[in-house]
Every structure is written in structure tokens, then in C-alpha cells.
């Protein structure tokens, strides 16, 4: 048995789970009027209410013991001080350095990385401001109107999510497009209405080797050359963000247009780096600084607050409680702010690429479950789609609900209706509806006794479904920075407790490797027989039926 499962806290939690598993939150709230005060935390304008969870004081005490037994405080210091905690890639993990405001040196392998971070930030801001103020001119001396960020995964999801979230704060005469899919439809649909004379491409790839991004980048270059005839002024239309400057130069990007990132920034933690170039172009450098400031304030909170008052720590511990003791396999993230519509997709990579691991830090297979299946959608849309399962399904799906106290335009009629749904859903999931309540309602509707008894089972809601609510004043850049950082640290804490490395991603390699070799097999019309019968069958069906011009 793993050390984690043998630990005193784990064993005590198992016991405690037996005591609490049949207790209903409705009764917990009935017995303790102070539950909200006890189980909610506030950081600046962000309120984190975790009182609608299946916990009591004992649960919190034992979960904190679990965190201490995993030496969480020591791990937090390792994270911030640049230790090589990404041991399988022998790298430090320092996305926090990118938003550091303390001006104290941050040493990575004996070198202070702060001056380089600052320089790169200045470079990014300079390019962004030139574009925003229309000083940056293209090949035919026209201002740039369209930016196309070509990247995937961490070089795509973060910038896309943030530019969508902060679109109320963006310049309206600049369009930012994101292309990630190697499916030609994505880039072609994007380029169809663009003018190469007023378009700037950002090739965003930490490695500059990712197939999807490189194929799209080449298509963009060919489109540019075809339309403008020569590559004489290509430097006015292509920039890159990468840690592989050599490959970016070989691709033909002018050195001045290459923005650096470092191997100690993980792709899914990189929106704070030059990967955020498209964000800075959209919202401006002052707003970007606010984003960094919001994250920095959470970093300080995470590093210094006692574990029980530490929001990301409590978020993580609750996840562990459901994942490992209630056997909940998934979790939902449900923003009630339209501008956060890409947040669940962003978090999916952040969480599942970080903690979807079955081997621990010692190289041993774990004997407990790790990262959950994370899914989500705008809450209101989810209500009319999959909330049925959340309320009456057979699976326990702990959910995070995020909502703003006011929105940018704040039309009262809309916002009150929106918020009534937020409060109603969390209450419904917690309380449910008993048979007595359902019966009384049906009687009030005038149904006869037989009809009531037939319908009754369908009208009962078991409740006791956990939700945690994050209420923030409004979705400005600083608040968004804070929310993202809360989740980043939550993921880290869970990785520490599960004793896994949250910062590598070897699981994405096998598919890439196979795709490389299969790509060659698609070059001709010969039947393949090198795989299993299913893969052979699929490849051969494709080769037989594809149009001749694709053969
Ligand atoms: O395939 C997964 C991945 O390596 C992610 O971790 C990363 O964010 C993404 O691909 C893009 O990588 P790059 O920025 O190097 O193109």
C-alpha cells in the first residue's frame, strides 16, 4: 500500500467518511446556523463559499492533517524558490516569477531571472503598443487590423480564454483570431475574410516543433506570399513566441519579432509570459499588469496564509475529499459569466494535463485515483443541457460555480435573473426536494391521489450534491488574474498530496509519435498491414475513399 494510503490522516478520513457519508447537508445547515461564516473565505473582492459541501469540522481538521503530512508548506516554498520540482524534466516551475512584484531576485540554477523577465515584458509591451496605436505598419504601409495567434494547448487556450473574458476592456478596432486546429477548416475559415496587408501572425509555440502549429504557420506564410507576392516585408507580418529561437529564425521570423519564454514555464501555465502577447495587444499593457497583479496577490496569499484560511488549499482538499473518499470521478466548472465561456476548456488542460497521472514521484504506480475528469460550460447553458444529471443522476459531480456581483454593463433585469439562477441552483443541489415536499406540490396542483403516487418518484430530488461558489465583484483583469492563479495553485496542492509531478505531460507523447509514423503511411495508395486489424481497417478505408487529389 502507498505511503499516502497508509498515512494516519488518510486512514482517519476513511473512517470519517463512513460516519458522514449518509449525513445530508440539509441537516448540517439545520443544525449549524454559522455554517456559511465558518466555511467561507474572502480574498480582496473574491468570496469563496464552500459551506455547501459534505464536510464538518472533523473533515476540515483531517484534510488539513493530510496536507501537513504531505509537507505541503515545504512544497509551496519549493515551488516559489525555483527548486527543480518538475523532476522528470529536471526543471524549475516558476510561472509565479512572471507576475512577481517583490523585485527580489529569483534564482534559477544560480542566475537571477528577473531582469530577463522584465526585459521580455518591455519588448512585448512595445510591440503591442505600436500595433494598438497604429504605428506598426505592414508591407503596404497600412495599420494592422487583425492579429492571428497560431498555437495550441497552452499556447492557445490561455490567451483565448483571457481575451474573451476581457473583451469589454479590449480595443474594438482590432480583431484577435485564434487558430489551433490542424484541420484546414480552422485556418481557412479565419483567413477567408482577412487582408494580408493588415494582418499580423503570431506563431506561439514554446517548442516550435508542435505539428499542428507548424503546419498552420506554413499555411499562413504561403497565404501571405501568394497574396503579397514576395517575402521582402514578411517581418512586418510575422512574430513568434518561443523558447526555441533558432527554429523560429529558420522559419523566417526576424529576430526582433521573436519573444522569448523559458523552459521553467510550463505551456499550460504560460499565459503570464510572452505567450500573452495577443492578450497585451487586445487589452493593453496596463490591463495586462492588472492581470499579473491579481495573480501576484493570490501568490502572496497562497504562500503566507495558514492552510485553513488558504483558498487554493481548501479548494484542493475538497477535491481530494470527493475524488478519493466519495469516489467522485469528475468535477464541473460552471461560470455564470458569458465572458468566461472558454474558462472550462482552459481549465481542462490546466487540470487534466497536470494531474492526469498514474505514476507517482518515486516512479511507482499509484493505488488511489488522481486528477478528476473536468468538464464545464456556461452555467445557464448547462442548466438546459446536463444539469439534469447533476440533480438526479446516479453520479456525484462536485461543482464550482463562478459568478460576478455585477457585470460590465450591468442591466439590472438581466443580472438579477442571472444571479437568481446561481443562488437557486446551489440551493437546489444542496437541499434537493423531499417526497413530502413533492407530494404537497402535486396536491396543490390538484392531481388525484393515484396520479400523485405515480409521478412522485420522478419529482423527488435527493440533494446533498456539493457545490462551491466563487463570487467576485466583476470580471476585470485583476480579478481574472486572481481566479486563474487560485486554480493553478489548487492543481499544485492536489499534485503534492497525490505525490505526482503536476508539471510534465508524457501522456501526450505516444499519440504524437504514432501520428508521425502513420503520416508516412498515408503518402501512397498501398494497403497497410502493420497495425492491429482495427487501425489497418480504418487507414485502408480512408485511403480507398479519399479523393484522388489527396492521395
Ligand atoms: O501536446 C501537449 C503540449 O505539449 C502542451 O503541453 C502544450 O501546451 C502544447 O502541446 C503546445 O506546445 P508548444 O507551445 O510547444 O507548441
Summary tags:
six-stranded mixed sheet; 551 residues; binds 6-O-phosphono-beta-D-fructofuranose; 13 strands; five-stranded parallel sheet
Description of the structure:
Helix content is 48%, strand content 11%. Helix 5 packs across helix 14, helix 8 (157-165) packs parallel to helix 12 and helix 13 runs parallel beside helix 21. The protein starts with a helix and ends in a 6-residue tail after the last helix. A six-stranded mixed sheet has the order 1-2-13-12-10-11, with helices on both faces. Strands 6-5-7-8-9 form a five-stranded parallel sheet, sandwiched between helices. By secondary structure, the protein is of the alpha/beta class.
SSE blueprint and pairings:
Blueprint: H1 3-6, H2 8-20, H3 25-31, H4 35-38, E1 40-43, E2 46-49, H5 57-69, H6 72-80, E3 107-108, E4 111-112, H7 114-132, E5 146-150, H8 157-165, E6 175-179, H9 184-191, E7 199-204, H10 211-228, E8 238-242, H11 245-251, E9 258-260, H12 277-283, H13 285-304, H14 311-325, E10 330-335, H15 343-355, E11 373-376, H16 379-383, H17 387-392, E12 399-404, H18 412-431, H19 435-444, H20 449-459, E13 467-472, H21 477-498, H22 509-521, H23 533-545
Parallel strand pairs: 5-6, 5-7, 7-8, 8-9, 10-11, 10-12, 12-13
Antiparallel strand pairs: 1-2, 2-13, 3-4
The structure holds 6-O-phosphono-beta-D-fructofuranose.
